Amino acid sequence: MARKFRVLQIGGHDYGPHFEDDKNTDWDYLNPQIFSNYEDYKRAVKDTIYVHGQFNLIFVQTPFSEGLMETLEVASQPYTTYVDSQFWDDQFEAHPLVTQRIIRPLEYKDLNDLYEKLKSVTFSGQYGDKLSPKFCMVNPSFQGTADYVGNKALVLSGDFGEEMTPILSWQKHLFYDEGKVIQVWPEFTLSGNVEVEFVFRLISSGTAENIVEEFVVSHHDLATPLEIPRRTHDAYIVLSARAKGQGSFEMGAIHKRWSRLEMGQFILGGQRYADANRDEFIHYFNPGDMKPPLNVYFSGYRSAEGFEGYFMMNRFKAPFILIGDPRIEGGAFYLGSEEYESAIKQVIQDGLNRLGFAPDELILSGLSMGSFGALYYGAQLNPAGIVVGKPLINIGTVAENMPLLRPEDFGTALDVLLKNESGLKQEDIDRLNQKFWQKIEAADFSNTTFAISYMQHDDYDMHAFDMLLPILTRQHARVMSRGVPGRHNDDSPTITSWFVNFYNIILESRFGRVTQRAK
């Protein structure tokens, strides 16, 4: 049974009746006026949490008071608390808990707008998927060229005409989920004077005769994702594209996500970044207990879009950042344009600045694809620790190994090779590999502790650990390692166990944190 989304409303008129028909939301209302003192107030909240669990969202409609803030200290978690903008003032702004729990004002136009916002964001979990460009169908009358670049993109080049003309349709549809605001983000690039508009049709029963709604969006208006408002019925989103002008139109994946409006990307507090090529990464900052270090976790390969590792990182109690790569099929190893890679480093630096931490009060980490991000950016940031499991570092070699060692398995490596080097030849393979090793060779790891758990018979990147160890030794890095028998995906639970164990060792030895392992 799906977990319910739990809301606590403090003050104001009880909005619970508006959610009576929502079986996935539990609404608790607390009227501060019925309590004789704030201790009773806090006790009521504690008792509710003890019986039913933590609240996913707290909505405050009462003036600032120390008693209220003491209650929020008990009940709130980062990003979960919003104060009605009518009650937001300098006292809220200046309170340290607002910084630690990232409490924010909620703006709305009127009551209907407020109800709509609350109903749109009160759902458990996260969801995102995508339509691959391999499902694109080109208009047969198009006289130009059409070439697939792996799973990355379909590239159309030529004369698209002087008027907007249908050019693409999709064999598959996106699903429009009842009760959700649906966010749509198409990946595309244009050259020459080509202009494109996308048509999104909501169809109730999958036939053209039942078009419920239609959205026509120019590429100029897609600097941010399209958000299709919440509706009370399921539907299909049927896609097509029109184009005009001369040049090229490169069409990548079309991403669909459950939106939380201005409250966050995927989860409350989640954020996204897109560069000039519309390449994305997602990131989430949690201040934890605001004590060093800042732990950064790079997500592994995942075809389902969203954040990975939240509960694992949250258990360390320290501040953390989650970073995910939703490109291609399940990630593109955090490689991209100079703008893209600089933005990842800036997100990490912003986290350190926000906390007032020194540059080396930092641990970077990741599993499998995420290990590449941790090592690649770790070589540029000189953290106190780098914790990785099942390291993949020679991405060109991973792609090269596919035909003979892993037929039809992890074709993403070929897409990453194509995306970064525009070819599949040996020189392209070597050049992509060297992109990693150049960063590693130039790094200063003399103050960095490495913790590496690896598969002894890894069939993706067989020599990753053996190639990495001599360089780390030469650079006087401290290295802890653990080899586990098997191929890349044979024993993920053991790798994850060592990953967490190594994390705890570094947290204790380098930062004096008493960990669960040590208790």
TrEMBL record:
Recorded coiled-coil stretches: none
Superkingdom of the source species: Bacteria
InterPro entries per the UniProt record, alphabetical: AB_hydrolase_fold, Asp2
GO biological process: protein transport
Pfam family, one: Asp2
Protein name per Swiss-Prot or TrEMBL: Accessory Sec system protein Asp2
Classification of source organism: Bacteria, Bacillati, Bacillota, Bacilli, Bacillales
Gene name as annotated: asp2
